[in-house]
Amino acid sequence: MRTLVLNAGYEPLGVVSFKRALVLVMNEKATIIEQVEGEPVCATSRVYERPAVIILTRYVRIPGARSAPVTRRGVLRRDAHRCAYCGGAASTIDHVLPRSRGGKDTWDNLVACCLRCNNLKGDRTPQEMSWSLRLVPGAPRGGQWTVRGVDRADPRWEPYLALAA
């Protein structure tokens, strides 16, 4: 059971276990907005509803710009598990400009790639292979990318994640 945590301004911050969310509610650091019906949690002093979405009582400032870290899973997800060269099912990632030629691990240089195209391309650029990219690689956009843990979102979270998009 997981719980979406919202900042005091309804900005999604992340996803925590329902136990962590319940501790925040019990310590009056958060309030339950959405709950799981019919599954209360009994404490010594009172009964709490099982939280699905909570909001912090005080605003938490997040230092720095929130950007999604570059990961293999993130690149595959951004490209919908489709090869950037042939459009087939992708299982690997590829550096558009190979690392041996100074290519970096950035959103702009990584694309999802099928094993066949990755092996054919090898240590060359798409221009040298006379290939074209089916998409323009770049950093993902949208609120779900900047909030950790929402890749398997609960339907009750949708209104709050839509605000962040």
From TrEMBL:
What is the phylogenetic placement of the source species in the record?
Bacteria, Bacillati, Actinomycetota, Actinomycetes, Micrococcales
The protein's matches in Pfam families, at most eight in alphabetical order, are given as: HNH_5
Extract the Gene3D superfamilies matched here.
1.10.30.50
Species per Swiss-Prot/TrEMBL record: Microbacterium caowuchunii
- Report what the protein is called: HNH endonuclease
Name all HNH nuclease domain ranges.
70-119
Q: Check the record and name the InterPro entries matching this protein.
A: HNH_5 (IPR029471), HNH_nuc (IPR003615), NA-targeting_endonuclease (IPR052892)
The record's keywords, sorted A to Z, are: Endonuclease, Hydrolase, Nuclease
Q: Name one GO molecular function term.
A: endonuclease activity
Protein origin, superkingdom: Bacteria
